[in-house]
Amino acid sequence: MDLKDQTVLIIGGATGMGFATAQLVEKLGGKVIIAGHNEEKNAKALATLSENAESRFVNVVDANTIEALFKSIDSFHHLFITAAPGGTGDFLEAPLEIKETYIYGKFWSLFMITKSAVKHISNEGSITFITGGFTTNPTKGTVLVTAAFNAVEGFAKALTVEMAPIRFNVIRPGFIDSGFWDFMEASERQKLFEEKRSKTAVNRIGASEDIAKMATAIMMNSFINGQVIEVDGGQLP
Ligand SMILES: NC(=O)c1ccc[n+]([C@@H]2O[C@H](COP(=O)([O-])OP(=O)(O)OC[C@H]3O[C@@H](n4cnc5c(N)ncnc54)[C@H](OP(=O)(O)O)[C@@H]3O)[C@@H](O)[C@H]2O)c1
Is the Cβ atom of 65 under 6 angstroms away from ligand 1? Predict the structure, then answer.
């Protein structure tokens, strides 16, 4: 199995899980288009990929840039979306303006992207979304995240029926060591990583490459459809 002659669009592909997936897609013989809202990060990532790779600008909460993205791409085989902006936090403090929330950044962005993407994707193609452990195990302050993740998982399941034969799947990662956590102060981040490691049955936290392996496996296996796949090392009680 490989991705020879397949084009893979990765939104959020300049960093983290998206970038690790871009690298693995190339190793598997595929062509990569990375898309994101930071031109500097796009250029840096593109410089380390092969000369066949391309990059595009898109801000996933801006419908105009989503339209422009798909206007610039004729056709492709697989789409993987990792980008997810938006505010989270305590329920009582959450803004009432949906555009300011994670529901919009995580769920509605996928809704808008998917609506455009299905017009360009191959019938043998796949779309993969990312959620996380808060889907089933919310903690305080994650109400918007949990709601958004559950919406995404339901969305994927329903699309599997409505947009067949295009395949839709969700990867639900455990704790992954990526730039996602760079906003934290180094010692705090280290403390968090250690706490998460101690709760993981394989005695390590995840790497972006762990998610890349699952994302490409989904692309290559045309019988994986409508699934939520946990990639979390197994969680200790
Ligand atoms: N890391 C974890 O432990 C973990 C666990 C469970 C779930 N997740 C989920 O996994 C996904 C990817 O995480 P990651 O670890 O790969 O993080 P990451 O490296 O921060 O990747 C996200 C990428 O999306 C881009 N992006 C953000 N807002 C965007 C926008 N409005 N338009 C276009 N691109 C945008 C980011 O660019 P900028 O950096 O320039 O904003 C970044 O390149 C996230 O949705 C996260 O919620 C992560």
Answer: no
- Nearest partner of 168 among 158, 178, 177, judged by Cα: 158
Q: CA 224, CA 221: separation in Å to the nearest integer?
A: 6
Distance CA 58, CA 187 (A): 33
> Which atom of ligand 1 lies nearest, measured to the CA of 182?
20
Inter-residue long-range contacts of 42-48, CB under 8 Å, 24+ positions, other chains counted: 42/14, 44/14, 45/13, 45/14, 45/15, 45/19, 48/23
pLDDT digits (tens, 9 = 90+) for 10-45: 999 999 999 999 999 999 999 999 999 999 999 999
What is the amino acid identity at position 196? Answer: K
Q: Specify the CATH number for the domain of residue 38.
A: 3.40.50.720
Q: With respect to residue 216, please indicate whether it lies within any of the assigned structural domains.
A: yes
